[in-house]
């Protein structure tokens, strides 16, 4: 297919405002309407609006064995752009626009293939990946529709290398309770909510440090993001709150780590945990990558090293499906002002996707 076809689709997709938040997307939004008309003939299309901006676009032609998954929501445009973020701008072999790399470029490539190649093909486009509370992929798996596929390809930016493993992502908020009073009381050492939070943080960081290999390579990433608490230095703090996130290696279990890290709170701390997101590593805990590795070899896909960012390939893996990550662009080009993807990467992705689709059956 021509480069112009990919850029034509990409321009249309970038022009659709799918920033998440606010995730103001419905089944009747312009991007869903566009995709429905762009896939070409022969597709059975199902659009499911789960409400609150959670929309799934599922298109199937024939009897495919491979499912291509793309999220079509983007992070907010944010400041610092030198170009209109919702208008595609092509310059010096680069296509600029919000979502061009993450991951509307992949969506445009797949749409160009769908309209030009008659082969069996399946697409799942979703609208809720870029913010907490994503539901579409999990609901799709729970519906049983994913079970017909031997392989899932999640089209996040990997420089067109087949990624078989990545870190998980766990984020949470902790609220610590204390017993307020005057700081002259000796009990402040034990009853201060900030003290209790600091004790938890010290133990949690040590727990994460001890999980890392002796050679210094990071096995468990733990980051305390925000800290709030107390009213004055002469008042025993009655409340304190922090947010934290962790990224575990492939094969590790977020839920086991969560139990361990919650146990770091001192006795009587009165802490309440609010878990924002649990995304297992890829492969999900207890699973291997043998099927995905064999698929990559069969289709001459260049393998890449495990990556640090999380993708929804892990959700498919949780439900027992073989999944890998393969898409145009580089993660360093995503989520930035003047986001871009190289045209050469789009062309390479088109060749790889096209070859998979033509030979998977």
Overview of this structure, please?
It contains 10 helices and 17 strands. The chain has 361 residues and is an alpha/beta fold. It is 30% helix and 25% strand. The strands form 5 sheets. The protein has a 6-stranded mixed beta sheet, sandwiched between helices. Strands 11-13-9-14 form a 4-stranded antiparallel beta sheet, covered by helices on one side.
Briefly summarize what is shown.
It is built from ten helices and 17 strands.
Provide key terms for this protein:
361 residues, 4-stranded antiparallel β-sheet, 6-stranded mixed β-sheet, alpha/beta
Mean pLDDT comes to 94
Cα distance spanning the termini: 21 Å
Structural class assignment: alpha/beta
Strand line-up across the major sheet = 1-2-6-3-7-16
Shape descriptor: elongated
State the order of secondary-structure elements, H for helix, E for strand: HHEEEEEHEHEEEEHHEEEHEHEHEEH
Q: What's the main sheet like? A: 6 strands, mixed
**Proportion of beta-strand residues:** 15-25%
Specify Rg, calculated over alpha carbons. Answer: 23 Å
Low-confidence parts, pLDDT < 50 over ≥5 residues?
Answer: none
Count of runs of 4 or more consecutive helical residues: 10
Beta-strand segment tally: 17
Task: Please give the share of residues in helix.
Answer: 25-40%
């Amino acid at each position: 297919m021509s480069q112009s076809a990919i850029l034509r689709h990409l321009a249309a997709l970038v022009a659709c405002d799918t920033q998440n938040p606010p995730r103001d997307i419905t089944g009747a939004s312009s991007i869903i309407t566009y995709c429905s008309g762009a896939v070409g003939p022969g597709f059975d299309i199902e659009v499911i609006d789960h409400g609150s901006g959670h929309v799934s676009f599922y298109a199937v032609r024939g009897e495919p064995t491979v499912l291509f998954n793309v999220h079509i929501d983007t992070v907010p445009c944010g400041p610092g752009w030198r170009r209109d973020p919702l208008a595609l701008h092509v310059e010096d072999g680069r296509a600029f626009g919000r979502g061009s790399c993450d991951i509307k470029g992949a969506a445009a490539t797949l749409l160009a293939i769908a309209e030009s190649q008659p082969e069996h093909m399946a697409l799942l486009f979703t609208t809720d990946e870029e913010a907490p509370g994503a539901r579409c992929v999990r609901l799709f798996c729970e519906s049983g529709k994913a079970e017909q596929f031997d392989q899932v390809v999640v089209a996040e930016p990997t420089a067109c290398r087949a990624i078989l493993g990545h870190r998980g992502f766990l984020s949470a908020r902790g609220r610590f309770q204390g017993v307020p009073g005057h700081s002259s009381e000796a009990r402040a050492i034990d009853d201060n909510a900030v003290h209790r939070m600091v004790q938890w943080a010290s133990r949690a960081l040590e727990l994460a440090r001890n999980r890392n290999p002796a050679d210094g390579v990071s096995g468990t990433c733990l980051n305390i993001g925000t800290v709030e608490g107390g009213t004055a230095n002469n008042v025993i703090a009655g409340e304190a709150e922090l947010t934290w996130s962790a990224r575990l290696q492939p094969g590790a279990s977020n839920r086991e780590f969560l139990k361990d890290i919650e146990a770091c709170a001192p006795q009587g701390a009165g802490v309440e945990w609010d878990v924002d997101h649990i995304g297992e590593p890829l492969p999900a805990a207890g699973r291997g990558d043998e099927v995905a590795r064999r698929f990559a070899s069969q289709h001459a896909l260049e393998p890449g090293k495990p990556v640090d960012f999380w993708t929804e390939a892990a959700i498919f893996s949780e439900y027992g499906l073989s999944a890998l990550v393969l898409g145009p662009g580089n993660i360093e080009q995503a989520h930035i002002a003047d986001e871009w993807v190289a045209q050469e990467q789009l062309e390479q992705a088109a060749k790889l996707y096209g070859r998979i689709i033509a030979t998977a059956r």
